[in-house]
Design brief:
Chains A, B: One of its GO terms (molecular function) is DNA-binding transcription factor activity. Two copies of one chain form a homodimer. Chain A has helices at about 20-35, 45-50, 55-60, 65-80, 90-100, 105-120, 120-150, 160-175, 180-195. Chain A has about 200 residues and is mostly helical. The first copy, chain A, has two domains: about 1-60, Orthogonal Bundle (Arc Repressor Mutant, subunit A); about 65-195, Tetracycline Repressor, domain 2, CATH 1.10.357.10. In chain A, helix 1 crosses helix 2 and helix 5 packs parallel to helix 8.
Chain lengths: ~200, ~200
């Protein structure tokens, strides 16, 4: 079970006993997903394609959901970066629009699947929880930076604000209502920024 | 395997050919759920308990998720009513706290299960979508009433506001973070009501 990696290129093509690298397995997982769809995705198919043993895969990813989440994360990184536009309105708008847009493709299908699995499988839940905890730390920076610039009140809890936006996007993803107008996005951002009560006169 | 139940009370007791009423099936479904848990829940078990044919059940509920959602809705009605406290802050706070509290029990487990199933089964998705569309119409009334009282600006989209709160609760349910402090609830409500940008002087 020791791994004598003698890897060239980006994918291991060695004999079956030559364990594939993490990177090769991730690439194989993505290829299996794109070819077979989510319903045809299995650790077995990934192992076959990566020419890796299933135990090797399970050593790094304790569940199918954990592997799917890593594929998701790699794909998402390509399309989605935390915005840094210098003002809080544009940053939050770009953050929300970015989530909604990214999830309209394969990334959204993968993430829905992981969220669904997490409701029944403890390993999937653990993988999703760890991922989300990290994402919350990253996304709260959007609001913290705005606080440093004086654009957002110091008493505001940064994490709660971005959680409100990402939860809204989750809700849209899970009910297949991602395709929303710019006006709706702006209404959500306006609510978070300025609230819904009447503006003081003057 | 036949259950010679000679039960009086609130449940239909006809012979197997005597189709059980919807109400009896719902009660049987709830009983099966409480006894066997979600993993032991099946249309078959419900049919046995209600002494109904499976086709009878499927005529009314095209999927297990649809039946679960009805059980959920019946249970939730007991604990959860749309608040009407005469002011928008208390109404929205009670709405959000009500969702978070209701979901800490069995209702939450059922709803999570339905949301998860909806990500893979078209019938479950249809049932959830229909349910949510109706709920959105009901919950938006909270904001509309506040607009009628002049507490909320007329240009605000009522549905979007309650969706932001319910999505936040969905996110907490699906990541098992329902147990939140009153301060956090207030921070969410404050954000929706008054926003996060600095308050105008004076």
């Amino acid at each position: 079970m020791t791994e004598a990696e003698t890897k060239p290129a980006r994918r291991s093509i060695g004999a079956t006993r030559n364990p594939a690298s993490q990177e090769a397995i991730l690439q194989a997982a993505e290829a299996v997903l794109l070819e077979n769809g989510l319903s045809g995705f299995s650790i077995e198919a990934v192992a076959r394609r990566a020419r890796a043993g299933k135990p090797t895969i399970y050593r790094w990813w304790p569940s199918q959901a954990a592997l799917l989440l890593d594929v998701y994360h790699c794909r998402k990184k390509v399309d989605f970066n935390f915005p840094d536009k210098g003002n809080v309105r544009d940053d939050l708008r770009a953050y929300l629009k970015g989530l909604l847009a990214t999830w309209q493709g394969t990334s959204g299908a993968i993430f829905r699947c992981v969220v669904a699995k997490a409701q029944g499988e403890p390993e999937a839940f653990a993988a999703l929880s760890a991922y989300m905890a990290e994402r919350r730390l990253q996304s709260r920076r959007l609001v913290e930076k705005a606080q440093e610039r004086g654009e957002v009140r110091a008493d505001v809890r940064p994490e709660l604000v971005t959680e409100m936006l990402s939860s809204f996007a989750w809700g849209r993803l899970l009910t297949e209502r991602l395709d929303i107008s710019d006006e709706e996005v702006d209404a959500v951002i306006d609510t978070v920024l300025a609230g819904i009560v009447p503006r003081p006169a003057g």
